[in-house]
Amino acid sequence: MGQTQQTGSCEEIDVKALQDMYKKFVLECPSGVLFLHEFKRFFGVDPTGEASDYAESMFRAFDKNGDNTIDFLEFVAALNLVFRGDLEHKLRWSFKVYDKDGNGYVDRNELRSIIDSIYRIKKCSKKDMSETQLSVDEVVERILDAVDFDRDGHITLEEFIRGAQEDPWVLNMLRLDMNPAGWVLENRRKSAHF
Question: Among 29, 59, 106, 138, which is 20 to 30 Å from 163 by CA?
């Protein structure tokens, strides 16, 4: 019998799903760590498919110690943040996904890369695209205009958080990337069928 646990954000943590994930983690990674190619295989992501760039960004955000591997504790810590974290913590995690090179700020190319990946994933999965009436470049420009307060062409963590908290449209656009739990669980279910 599966157990679920309610969190403050009304998301449910399914204990059985976590146990299944751990079993799959240990089965596929007896060494106890996931490398990028294993991470993609773990979630059924085609290495060259639409979700590949997004998966790589998620991998970097999960890899807390920067050793290019994810151990199960890093994996669970990231999922716990996604399920239970407050908005600021989720935005901090999301910033790491956007900051692809880890230099402490998001530039136009990084922002465009993630937004483009998200658009491609949504298009392939036939998700609601009502917000995507704007082109990727239009979304990038609008986010930069709203969030890059000092107009230096870079978004710092502080600007990222402040901009998302002050502008509902920006928050909504950044939330495209703020639900990795749904993406993880959706892709875990897909990979279970193969």
Answer: 59
